[in-house]
Every structure is written in C-alpha cells, then in structure tokens.
Amino acid sequence: MKKSEEIREHLNQLRKEMEREGVDTLMIPTADYHNSEYAAEYFAARKYYSGFTGSAGTLIVSKDWAGLWTDGRYWIQAEREMKDTGIALMKMAEPGVPDTGEYLEQTMKDGEVLGFDGRCVSYEEGHRLKKALKAHDVQIIAKKDLAGRAWKHRPELPCHPMFVLEEKYVGESSVSKVRRLREALGRNGARNLVITKLDDIMWLTNLRGADVDYNPVALSYAVVTPADVHLFVQPEEVSDQVRSYCGKVGITLHDYADFEAFLQEMTFDGGVSMDPGQVSYRIFSLVKKRCELADVPVIREACPIELMKAVKNATEIRNTKEIYLEDSVKVTDFIFWLTHKADLTKETELSAAQHLDHLRTEIPGFLELSFGTIAAYGANAAQMHYDPSRQTPAQLAPEGMLLVDSGGTYTRGTTDVTRTTALGPVTEEMRKSYTLTAAGNLNLLHAVFLSGCKGINLDILCREPLWETGTDYKCGTGHGIGYCLNVHEGPQSIRWRQGKNLSDAVFEPGMIISDEPGVYKAGKYGIRIETILLCTEAMKTEDGQFLQFEPLTFVPLDRNLLNPAYLTDKERKRVNDYQRQCREKLLPFIQDEEERAWLLEMTEEL
C-alpha cells in the first residue's frame, strides 16, 4: 500500500472513532503531555494521521476535510510528504491563511463538538479555543484520546534510566536552585509551583534522562511546595544512585502515573503558580478547580525556572566554551575530510552525516546528538529541516553546496552549528547569497546594544544585507540553547516580529543564543550559517550598561563561497577577524599537516 493510501486509511479509522464519540472536529497538535518541542514516538499522532514528519504542526480533522498547519521551515517538506493524502497544507502566517483557532471559529457550526487530548494542549490554547467557540455553543471534549484509540500498533511510552549530572558540570546544587526558586515564587505571591516542562524539571533537580530523542530528559512532573519537592517519574527509570541522590537533596519520588491522583488529593497552602502556556489544559484545569474549592489563588505566570536556567553560571560558561571549541574542531575536521579526502562519488547526504556523527562520539563526555543531523545537498537544502534519513539520500558530487546543521549533547554542554560548504564549482548567485548571509551573521555577532534589548530589537542587524536585495528567510534568527539540555531553549530569541506563543526576553549576560541567517531557494539551493553566541557585558557609560556577544563557535567560513565584491569595508574586516580567530583557536588542535595547510589557506584575509 502506498504511503498516501495508508494515511487515508488512518484518517478513515480516526473518523469512525470520532463518529462513535460524537466529535465533529478533532485537533491533533505536535505535542506530548509536557508541551515538549520534540515528542517521543508514543506521542506522534499527528505524524501517524498526516504523514508529515516535521517537528512542528497541527492537524485538524473533520468529517470531510483535513488540514495541516505548519510554518515556513516545513512547507516544502510537508507538500512532499502529504502528496495525494487529501490533506490541505495551511501555510501559517501567510496572507489569507487563518490560524487554527480562527479556522475553527469560522467553520464550526452551532452545537457541534470539538475534541482534543487535553494532556497535549496547553491551558492557554485550550482556554482560547473555548472562549472563541463559546458564541457558537461548541462543546469541547478534552478528556478522551481519540487519536490514540484509533492508532494501530502504537509505540510504548518511552522508559530509560535516569542519571545525576554532577555539580562539577552544572555548577550549582539542586538544593541551591530550589532555594532560589522559592525566593522567586515568593516575590510573585506564590508558595507552590506545578512544573510540567521536562527541561525545567531536569535543570532544577540536576537529573537527566533519555525519554525524548536528542533531549536528555525524563518524562516527569514536579510540584514544589514551601517544604517539599515532589518528583513524578516512571519507577523503572530510578536507579539506586538516583534514589539515594534524591533522598540526600530532599526530593520525594512518586510514580509518574500517579500525578493526577496526587493533585486530586493535595491541599495547597497558599497561592499556586502555573504557566498557562506550558501546563496542559487538563492539569491546569484540575489544579484550578482544587484551588477554587480551597479559596487559594492561581498565579498565572511564566515559570521562573525558564529565566534562571537561561542565564548560565560561571561553571556552565567555562565548560560550554571548552566543549564548543572541541566540537568546532570536529566540524572543521569533517569539512576538510569532505572537501579533500572523501570520494564524493561514493558518499551520500546520509553517509556524510554519519561521518560527522561518528567524529562527535570521540569527544569526552558525549551523550547523544542534540538533534538529527541535517545534511542537505543541492536543492534539498532549501528545506530548512531536511532529514536525509527519512528519504532516499541524495548522492553527493564535486559541484554545488552541502548544508550541514548538527550538534551534540555532552556533560559539558549542548552544541549546535551550521556550515554550508562548496563541494566544487558554484554559481555566482550562490556566492552572492552566501556572502550576504555571512555579512548578516557577523553583523549580529558584532552587535553592541543597551541593556534592556530583546531579540526583536536586534534581528534587523542579521537580515539587513538580505532584505536590501529583497531576500528573506521564513524563520527566526536565533534561539537559546540549554546546558546538557534541549538544543532549543527560551525565553530569549531573535526574530523580526513577535508572534503568538513565541518566547522573548531581555538579554542578560550569561545567555546563549544562536545566530543563523540563511537563503532558501526552492528547487535550487539552500544556505545557512549558524554561529552560537554568548551574551557578555560591554562598556558602561553615563547612558547605561551596554552588552555584546562573543562567539562560541569557531568553524571557518568557506572562502570559496565568499566574494568580497558584495561586502562593505566594515563587513570585509569582520569576515577577516572571524577567520583569524578560527585559525588561532583551531590550529593547536590540528596535527595533520595537510589539514593545517588547508586551514591556513581557508582563513587567509580577503
């Protein structure tokens, strides 16, 4: 059976389940019970019913229609993967395209029923839908997992051993973090905190797991009270070491499956803080009802942990600088291999990605990749999140460009880097696009800005060289990065406009951000240059404290793709300065004489 026919059959079975339950329209987001960016296969209902494998999107299914909403990073991929399924692609943020809530409000009739799994939709989103559809007297059913019922051979809930990340890596004990957290809660009038976001829980407890691919987290919930920290995890994941550690730092362990029952029985002494944008509709509603019965206020605010973990401490910064340099060495080794050692007639996108993946395993403290390596050749690189393992990988050739976006998770930090490399002759259009991308990347790297700025204030620095030619990339410019945690982390970000549910925060010294402009020409080529930056203090004057960035990534730009004719004198100097830094940082680690000679040539001044 063709893939498109399988998807149609899956939708038929789903519609039968909807009819049995009296549900007219079903919404299936890309989410687990913790609003994670990457969800384990157990939660991949949207993929099962649409065929779309991207990491972001929402599927809406009615009796005679189905549509998938996703952003510009995935349009090309979604069109290809959903071909002949009958599912409409709804291009988010495009003119004339309603968002999911607007669509439901426009199309659902009086008295109809909307269904979704309330564990996989945030309270903020669920409440927004309930409010918008109230005028149509639309009923919401959020306590039934209809997609799960109709799913044949659903994978098991992931369950892997947890481990303790030692203080020599994280720089602060869990006891200290909990104390700071309680102080932050007190400033906002709260005495209790319900946490469902996995990386927040891992950061607070200094525990790590392996229940989500590429994210070192364990499926878990936590409740912090004035006296206790309650942690809910699958018992099979708790080793004697983890159990002993939790006892020493005052963490009380519970079964993951008992979380809702615990909340039903718990009496909160004082205000309860929950983030309505993170906590699920089902959990938030349950706690809200308990608080109303006890006349205890619910404090709706972002979890304080988000900002606490975004600002890295001195130990984390030291370790991160070390691991980024070691990681940069391996990426540089890979580029040299790719352009001077590999027989490109025998290499594919996937084999090239696997070569780089193997190099990372040689770095001390390697745990796993921080995401699936994107190795995209030629026109495939126009798909921002192209995955060579999900289709027949393209054969490489000594011409055109290869885009590789990759990273690793180590005990000393989490890395992310993208470089685009010429494999042979390229067009002048490609060189121009690459050069302007590099100019924007370095403009942001050299930013000096007043304390109080957010990413939305800085984004134009990166896009300006491209915007001046009428070119844009349909995604944000930068995201935060966790410490031995998720490769995408808030609340800081860099983007040109503020959309719904997008995190944004004032930059502070110690924050880490990616800097990744690009050019994506459908059917032709794709370019991305990603350098990771650390926010630090610059000068302090009578006008205030100024901040700046310093690079953590030291992988040289491809001199074969740079044309100084497209650069201003200032931009040319910035390119030369960055190349010189890469040379100075990398040379002590490179022993191969041929690679050293290549590096010296690649980093010569323009």
3D architecture notes:
By secondary structure, the protein is α+β, with helices and mostly antiparallel strands. It has three domains: 147 residues, Creatine Amidinohydrolase, Chain A, domain 1, CATH 3.40.350.10; 146 residues, Creatine Amidinohydrolase, Chain A, domain 1 (3-Layer(aba) Sandwich); 292 residues, Creatine Amidinohydrolase, CATH 3.90.230. It has 19 helices and 28 strands. The strands form eight sheets. Strands 4-3-2-1-5-6 form a six-stranded mixed β-sheet. Helix 3 links the parallel strand 3 and strand 4. Helix 14 packs across helix 15, helix 16 packs antiparallel against helix 17 and helix 16 crosses helix 18. The radius of gyration is 25 Å and the shape is globular. The protein starts with a helix and ends with a helix.
Record keyword descriptors for this entry.
19 helices; Creatine Amidinohydrolase, Chain A, domain 1; Creatine Amidinohydrolase; 606 residues; six-stranded mixed β-sheet; 3 domains; alpha+beta; globular
